[in-house]
Design brief:
The chain has 202 residues and is an alpha+beta fold. It is built from 9 helices and 4 strands. Helix 3 crosses helix 6. Bound molecules: flavin mononucleotide (FMN). This is Nitroreductase family protein.
Length: 202
């Protein structure tokens, strides 16, 4: 049993930055995407536990299109670094583990699976919440060269490279420079009314 298994309290940062109109699971508000990573390894059982959470995401026809390419050794991470944008590399090079979320774009009949990205997105969301529950952090990145990743990691054509995820433990924001350091806190969201469309856009 994890310490957070009793009612997880809302973090002080979430209280400050994330007011809600309704009472929701505090885990959802406590999760955010820090860029400062501590110099602390991730145990294989914790890594596999967050991947297990992703495993249980729902998907269209239960096709489970998500796959997670894991880079935990220095050699594997160096390969990932070669296709990650400089603006992300500057902070994510300190992450002990990098994942590439790829998704199978085809269904079992060889046609397109229109839901693959939607489903892989749900799986990433589950992974991020379980990471937060375990006191870990998971930061997704779209800033990478997907074509280069496809080539570098020998990803078959029917899989789309969707996002890199940096996984580890939160570090000292002082390790970040300038704007990145200033932004190192949970972000807010649009008002609820702005995302609810009653009936239709018309
Ligand atoms: C698909 C996806 C791509 C993202 N790409 C980047 C990125 O390239 N670099 C980055 O620093 N953050 C990236 N982020 C993190 C978002 O900026 C962040 O999730 C968003 O601002 C909300 O903040 P929060 O996760 O702290 O709640 C990405 C997030 C997602 C889900």
């Amino acid at each position: 049993m994890l310490p957070s298994d009793k009612d997880e309290p809302l973090s002080s940062e979430a209280v400050k930055h994330r007011p809600t109109d309704y009472d929701i699971n505090p885990l959802i508000l406590n999760r955010w995407s820090p860029r400062a990573f501590a110099d602390r390894a991730v145990a294989e059982r914790d890594l596999h536990a967050i991947l297990e959470a992703a495993r249980w995401a729902p998907s269209s026809s239960n096709l489970q299109p998500w796959r997670f390419i894991v880079a935990a050794s220095e050699e594997q991470k160096a390969r990932f670094h070669s296709f990650i944008n400089d603006g992300n590399l500057i902070w994510c090079k300190h992450a002990p583990v990098l994942l590439l979320v790829v998704s199978k774009t085809t269904n079992n009949k060889g046609g397109m699976n229109r839901s693959h990205a939607f489903d892989a997105g749900a799986a990433w969301g589950y992974l991020a919440l379980e990471a937060c529950r375990r006191g870990m952090i998971a930061h997704a990145m779209g800033g990478f060269n997907a074509d280069q990743a496809q080539h570098e990691l020998s990803i078959p054509n029917q899989y789309a490279a969707l996002a890199v995820v940096a996984v580890g433990y939160q570090g000292d924001p002082a390790m970040l420079q300038g704007q990145l350091r200033e932004r190192e806190h949970p972000s807010s969201r649009m008002p609820l009314n702005d995302i609810i469309i009653e009936g239709s856009f018309a």
